Amino acid sequence: MFNFLWHCMKHLDLNGPWQFRALHTTASLPPRHRRVRRWMAARVPGTVHTDLMRQRVIPDPFYRTNENDVQWVADQQWLYRRTFNVPPQLLAEDVVHLVAEGLDTYAAIRINGKHVATTANMFIEHRFDVKRFLRAGKNSIEIEFDSPIAQSRALEAKHGRLRVALQPHRVYVRKAQYSFGWDWGPTLPTCGIWRSIWLEAFSHGKLKNPFVRVISLDRARASIEIAVEIERTTHDNLYVRACIGGPDTAQECEVPVRGNKVILPIRLRNPQLWWPNGSGDQPLYTAVLSLMRNDEELNTIEVPFALRTVRLLQEPDRKGRSFIIEINGEKIFCKGADWIPCDSFLPRVEDGTYERLLHLAKDAHFNMLRVWGGGVYERDTFYHLCDELGLMVWQDFMFACGEYPHAPWFLRNVEAEAEEVVRRLRNHPSIVLWCGNNECEWLFCTENPDKSPEEMNGAIIFRELLPAVCGRLDGTRPYWRSSPFGEGFPNAESNGNHHQWTIWSFWRDFPEYEKNHARFVTEFGFQAPAHLRTFEKVTLPTERHPQSITVQHHNKQIEGTERLFRFLAAHHIVPPDFEEFIYKTQLVQAEALKCAVEHWRRRKFATAGALFWQLNDCWPVSSWSVIDSALRPKAAYYFAKRFFAPVLLSFKRHDNHLEVWASNDLLQVVKGTLELSFTSVTGQSVWTRRLPVRLGSNASSRLLTLDLDRFASYDARQYYVVGRIQTADRHVSVQRFFWREPKHLLLPKPNVKTILRRVDNDRCELRLQARTFVKNLRIEITGADIVFEDNFFDMDPGTTARVRFPSQEPVAELSKRLSLHSLYDPSIAS
Question: How far apart are CA 226 and CA 433, in angstroms?
């Protein structure tokens, strides 16, 4: 459905129990599964895989290596059916539509044995007038799904193979590309009724495709324009009533309907502006639009919206051209991650999953997520939450890593998709940029260095078709051709946006991030395994080591496991224990992201964005995510809370000098105190300096430079520099500099005293007192998935930390299951 609520139309829900079976089965059907040709119970919304799992025909594809054993499912044709009763009053309406919010993908629809329509696009809502097929009383519906594998391979055979990463035939089908397998996800091409389906009936007319457009905006007033289309079935005199509500606002207006569209100009006094997280509040308004006939309300839609402006600033400078997102006239340094689908089986994703992940993002000071082009256009729930939480969305269109067809039949499908998507999503203030695709031009030009992006098959989609649709149906936010893209080579550092994958994927270590001077980075990352408990759900006890067949199967990058060992060995002693391996490789990932983000934040606004790959996962896996598929944060998530904080202290080493930097993302000057100390892991303080600092609004600056030669006589394995900025409004940032890698530090045995107390009915507080230096302290409550305020942090000798967390369990019970772990190896301890 669209991003608004419908009222006053008759609605017959077709979700719930259905039946399904295999149809026209091929030789790929395993003999032991021939029973799938008989009718079985299904659930809608759903997928054929989840229905087969529920019938115990196939095992859980996520468990061990079961993915390999269920590949036959995607080769079959599947038929879904159900019966339903149509009340006479529904058929008394002028129009009855069958609305299928999502059909995956090649579907033929029949009602009462008669052909209604065929579909070939997973991403969009399909709507058909079916009144002539229905009768009062009992009716039947059948939806036949063809194999996406068979269809895409047949199209490839007919039209030719294109230059495509991974499975090349996938680009011929308008279906979630990651379902064909990716370097972090399994190969599980689904089919089925994956979103809601219903009958909708109305008479006289209905409203559709509303668009609230900001025409002008300043602190005193906002001028907006509300456009809405009317689907009419009669020539009755109709009018549209608009009621606008929001912060300190309530006003109404009416306009007569003359034709199939009305435009309502609205002026709002003292507008409250929508800001990204960390830059201001997110006030939302609502336009309630009613289609009226005399005093009769035919139907009503509610359209949430917000007031804000967005521009993409690309201004020439000494190094090339900037790439800066500007909201309400203020430059915004974009901080966040890339978003992929939350599951290989999308109907299983609950609203609570979106709420958990997006609140975690907000709490970690994210202000942007990039919806990656190999997944899906997300549900309205996702975008509503981003609106409310101030999470800007860089919205890719669903094309990724390859050439695409540009035959007329394909372009027509793409244009219809783009029109549907833009109409559905354009009222969300969180969406600040449309992007044509993920990495198509970059990969083409990398493989064909003598060619330009214009020579790529499908270039017309991203150069002409998509920007034309965005301009015609929206025009309020910028369109960008690809991620990455720019003038010259599509992944240049001097202009446009950039993906940084020479580090990690090409075996280079993370300190080299500091050599990168890109203008806006929309992908970079390091892998780490999921939480041990997440792996325990999909492995046998004997398989829980990094090089078991099962654990390696749950790392989809070629030589992904080998990279984990390579970078772990560079920074830590490689442990024999699987849990310790997970702990240390998560720390490597965390330090890598920290190194990159701190570097790019010091360059503000020469670099204007850092979105790491990736926030979330679709299955239990070692991947680049910072939150695993069971919604358990890795160490890097907690590091992100610190390196994305609005006030950040960071260090940059130049030979024997240490630069001390502060980055301030707040839109006002910040005053505070900087304290620097040179101390030992046992608490011997050698040198301390305190000084007042003034941090410029929305800027980064170098505060001072330390000469490290003054500390040369001290043992670099035991001494370190610690810095702390504390501001008057309680922003605190702590940073430590070590001369040696963790594997060479002489750390004392941790000595931490804990006191656990209840703060209120829903929260507890853990008080920690460190008698020695503690590195990367991990807090866990065994058997509970708790997100702590902070975790995986260092503690200086003689310091105290307080960490709050949600829990309603008795403190005594929590204390029994409290577990602390830190980086300490007795074989090299001091």
Answer: 21
**At CB < 8 A and 24+ separation, what contacts does 236-241 make?**
236/204, 236/205, 236/293, 237/293, 237/294, 238/204, 238/205, 238/291, 238/292, 238/293, 238/298, 239/292, 240/207, 240/264, 240/289, 240/290, 240/291, 240/292, 241/289, 241/290, 241/292
CB 216 within 8 A of CB 232: no
Phi-psi region of 113 (alpha: psi -120 to 50; beta: other; left: phi over 0): left
742-767: average pLDDT: 96
CA distance 207 to 665: 42
**778: pLDDT confidence band, cut at 50, 70 and 90?**
very high
Largest CA distance in the chain: 92
> How many angstroms separate the CA atoms of 703 and 674, rounded?
9
Nearest to 359 by CA among 381, 333, 391, 318: 391
Contact 426, 473 (CB under 8 A): yes
Amino acid at 343: D
578-602 and 635-643 helices, crossing angle to 10°: 20
Own/partner pairs for 548-555, CB < 8 Å, 24+ apart? 549/65, 550/64, 550/65, 551/622, 553/64, 553/65, 553/67, 554/530, 554/619, 554/620, 554/621, 554/622, 555/527, 555/529, 555/621, 555/622, 555/623
pLDDT over threshold 60, residue 6 = no
Residue linked to tokens 């397998």:
181
Pairwise CA distance, residues 752 & 734, whole Å = 19
Distance, CA of 714 to CA of 718 (rounded, Å):
8
E-assigned strand segments in 670-796? 670-680, 685-695, 699-707, 719-727, 732-738, 752-758, 763-770, 774-781, 793-795
* Contact present, 20 and 48 (Cβ < 8 Å): yes
Question: Which residues lie closer than 8 Å to 336 by C-beta, 6 or more apart?
Answer: 361, 366, 367, 368, 369, 370, 391, 392, 611, 612, 615, 644
Please compute the mean of the pLDDT values over residues 588-608 and round it to a whole number. 98
Statement: residue 630 has pLDDT above 70: yes
Q: Identify the bridge partners of residue 596 per DSSP, sorted by sequence position.
A: none
Tokens of 246: 């929001």
Q: What is the Cα–Cα distance from 136 to 138, expressed in whole angstroms?
A: 7
Site of tokens 């400078």: 317
Q: How far, in whole angstroms, is CA 785 from its chain's centroid?
A: 21
Any bridge partners for residue 706, and if so which? 658
Per-residue pLDDT, 826 = 76
Give me 208's structure tokens: 């559709």
CB of 75 within 8 A of CB of 154?
Answer: no
pTM of the model: 0.97
Residue type, 270: N
φ/ψ bin of 439: left (φ > 0), alpha (ψ from -120 to 50), beta (otherwise): left
At residue 428, the 3 state secondary structure works out as coil
pLDDT, residue 1, reads 34
Q: How far is CA 643 from CA 132, 361, 697, in A?
A: 61, 13, 18
Measured CA to CA, the distance from residue 592 to residue 583 in angstroms comes to: 15
Q: Which residue in this structure is represented by tokens 């967390």?
A: 805
Helix (H, G, I), strand (E, B), or coil: what is residue 709? helix
Q: What angle do CA 122, 59, 549 make, to 5 degrees?
A: 100
Alpha helices in 44-194, H assignment, sequence order: 48-54, 88-91, 148-159
The mean pLDDT of 402-430, rounded to a whole number, is 98
More confident residue, 9 or 75: 75
For residue 235, give the DSSP letter.
-
Tokens of 808: 């309603």
Confidence check: pLDDT of 540 > 80: yes
Distance CA 524, CA 593 (A): 8
Q: How large is the C-alpha radius of gyration of the chain? A: 28
